[in-house]
Specification:
By secondary structure, the chain is of the alpha/beta class. The chain has 11 helices and 9 strands.
Length: 263
């Protein structure tokens, strides 16, 4: 497994335009995170323009956290453009098990073969048709419980599946890795997971998706560890995290990354 520092350098050199159709809660946080890491964010969701804007973008993220029928249609339009152009797009199936609407929309989006699907263990289990013990948008299952489902889902979508948790699990159906970076305080700030989708998408531009996803998770987690050293709580953690992400050097990332190849 290659070190993640070069992937960070490559992403910053590209400064990719990342089109995000995300939830209301995440927009501001996600835009600031993408700027801090070295990418260019855009928040565009109007059905009338979403396909045109996707055609201008280098990557896309789709998050169904506050989806409605119009946004759902916009997500499918944008994802169709990215799939046809073979540009990376990341799908976050927030709360997929909660309603039939989310399940049906997610099934349609999966047919467009997202480059990366990132979710918690319960969401990945639900996408794979194996149930899951979700509590609203929160996971009720362990990452380990979703590993087999993640491998099967990766083969089905021909993409990468990232299962978020205390130790993240990433697989393309053949290879797998665990990323142990991060800090518990990250879970106390809203939209931190949603913002991660944009970072993964940015890393995937011009880079192999499996390696890019692992590198993005490591970079995000290392920034969280650095921020936690000075933060007094969730309120001070968020600006400290943005500063840590902005100042993260490739050599620091390589030294701090805790990545292991998984069976």
């Amino acid at each position: 497994m290659q070190t993640p520092g070069p992937a960070l350098s490559a992403m910053r050199a590209e400064c990719p335009l990342v089109h995000n159709i995300t939830n209301f809660v995440a927009m501001n946080v996600m835009a600031n995170v993408l700027l801090a890491v070295g990418a260019s964010p855009a928040m565009v969701h109007a059905l009338e323009e979403v396909a045109d804007f996707a055609a201008l973008s280098q990557a896309l993220t789709v998050n169904i956290g506050t989806v409605d029928p119009d946004w759902g249609a916009a997500m499918q339009e944008a994802a169709t453009v990215m799939a046809a152009a073979r540009r990376p797009w990341v799908f976050d199936p927030v709360g997929v098990a909660a309603t039939r609407f989310r399940q049906d929309l997610s099934a349609s989006l999966l047919e467009l073969e997202p480059t990366v699907v990132r979710g918690n263990a319960s969401e990945i289990l639900a996408l794979a048709g194996l149930g899951g013990a979700a509590r609203g948008v929160d996971a009720g299952d362990s990452v380990e419980a979703a590993e087999t489902a993640a491998r099967a889902l990766a083969k089905r979508t021909r993409g990468v599946i990232a299962v978020s948790g205390p130790v993240d699990y990433v697989t393309d159906g053949t290879r797998a890795a665990r990323v142990a970076n991060g800090h518990p305080m990250m879970a106390q700030v809203t939209a931190m997971g949603c913002a991660l989708n944009g970072v993964i998408a940015a890393f995937c531009v011009g880079q192999p998706p499996f390696e890019a996803t692992v590198a993005a998770l490591a970079a995000y987690g290392v920034a969280g560890e650095i921020a936690a050293r000075t933060a007094q709580g969730p309120g001070s953690f968020q600006p400290a995290f943005l500063d840590a992400l902005h100042g993260l050097a490739p050599e620091t990332l390589d030294a701090a990354a805790r990545i292991e190849v998984a069976a």
